[in-house]
Specification:
Alpha-Beta Plaits; four-stranded antiparallel beta sheet
Length: 94
């Protein structure tokens, strides 16, 4: 499985209420559960909300599953990029 970052253009997403975030998360979880029941490997790791963009990290078997999740959930997947390497403070430790 590979890790991807998804750029979702969602106007005003950074100002959503807790209830709106909860509803969005529930919808995503529902679709992931359906896809998992269909033996499709897809896992949502977490997301970051900026003013008008949601950046989501997913682990999936292939990029096509991200687009399928997008279509089924109604959340856009404007740019999908495979993550090759994660660099963090621990990287400096060699």
């Amino acid at each position: 499985m590979s890790k991807y970052i998804i750029h979702r253009d969602i106007p005003g997403v950074g100002s959503f209420s807790p209830e709106e975030y909860r509803a969005a998360a529930n919808k995503s979880n529902e679709v992931i559960a359906e896809m998992t029941a269909e033996h499709k490997n897809i896992q949502w790791v977490h997301s970051y909300a900026t003013e008008d963009i949601m950046f989501c990290i997913y682990i999936v078997d292939n990029e096509a599953l991200i687009y399928e999740h997008s279509q089924r959930s109604g959340f856009p997947a404007n740019i999908v990029t495979k993550i090759n390497t994660v660099v963090d403070p621990v990287t400096a430790e060699g």
